[in-house]
Amino acid sequence: MSQAPLYALVMAGGSGTRFWPASREARPKQYLPISGGKPMLTETVERLEGLVQKEHVLIVTAKSQLDEVRRCLPDVPEENLIAEPEARNTAPCVALGALEVLRRDPNAVQVVLPADHVIEPRSAFAASVGAAAEEARASGALVTLGIRPDHPATGYGYIEAAERVARRPGGDVHRVARFVEKPDAARAEAFLKQGGFYWNAGIFVWSGAAIRAALEAFLPDVVTGLERAFAGGSLATEYARFASQPIDVAVLEKAHNVRVVPVDYSWSDVGSWAALAELAPLAEGSNRAALSSGAQLLAEDSTNCLAYAEGDQLIALLGVHDLVVVRAGNATLVCPRDRAQDVKRLVDRLRKAGDSRFL
């Protein structure tokens, strides 16, 4: 009997407000060369090469972002672009994609992953997904990847692993004891000291039958609504009825058959400019620069700054330290590195003022 094929469902509809002003409503973070010379979505799909056949890669995105997906992925078939009529967090997004894959191939195993993560090396990522897929095929479990923490991060959710239930060629598999929401600093320190806790990467692997059963158990209204849409109804009408909630909270925290594959490779969700400062290459001195398409950095008597620019732009730093400086389009951001998480507040003010020129 042939092995069940692997499909990939890439979630690419986020707004990326913490990466303003580079990330805008028409071109959010996942379509930008944040971590290198290519858009993050392109790098995510390239990471799947040799693991998932090209025709088995589906992209779920916002309707307004379809042109950006086509720009980044010109070879992806049009029928593999799935448009959400509005944002409803990851639970409806995952359900929409998972049921579509199930319609195409009831025997497929699915890997679900965000479009805007940085993961190295690619071979280690492929091995961990392979281990998760093997577990999903063998046990019918819902499998997630857990990143072994190297510092007490408070910006991620955590997964507590219980006993090992299987050994796969690409990694061990553990039963999930519980999911933990983003902890405070003291609790994160305790998790790191205790061991057995992993960052929740938001990458999932399961069979179509397993995720459908879980969705029917915990999100029956979403399954019913999507089936009405597949039968010829209005997807927009159905989506408007769905609650906005993450798949972790809506399904995985409630399910009993959840497994985790711990991994040690380099991973970042690049959640803010400060996170990018940890990944961007060193430029002049101790500064870091994420530059593309001819952009340049000129630094004099400046340290520990992050500079970002695209196109024919020059960022010049003189006598400054620990700053984020971003030049993108018609806006410039300057802020202390330790305030980078607050960029969303500026976006909220622009939205409240109704000033779409800078959004």
Which percent range describes the beta-strand content? 25-35%
What would you call the shape? globular
Q: What's the order of the H and E elements?
A: EHEHEHEEHEEEHEHHHHEEHEEEEEEH
Low-confidence stretches: none
Class by alpha and beta content: alpha/beta
Mean pLDDT level:
92
Describe the structure in your own words:
This protein is α/β, with parallel strands linked by helices. It folds into 2 domains: 6-268, Spore Coat Polysaccharide Biosynthesis Protein SpsA, Chain A, CATH 3.90.550.10; 273-358, no CATH class. 30% of the residues lie in helices and 29% in strands. The protein is built from 11 helices and 17 strands. The protein has helices at residues 40-46, 66-72, 90-104, 122-139, 185-194, 208-218, 220-230, 235-241, 247-252, 273-277, 343-353; strands at residues 6-11, 57-62, 81-84, 109-114, 118-120, 142-147, 158-168, 171-180, 197-207, 258-263, 266-268, 288-292, 296-300, 306-310, 314-318, 323-328, 331-336. The strands form 4 sheets. A 5-stranded mixed beta barrel has the order 6-9-7-8-10. Strands 12-14-16-17 form a 4-stranded mixed β-sheet. It has a two-stranded antiparallel sheet with strand order 5-11. A hairpin with a 2-residue loop joins strand 16 and strand 17. The longest helix is centred in the middle third of the chain and has 18 residues, at 122-139.
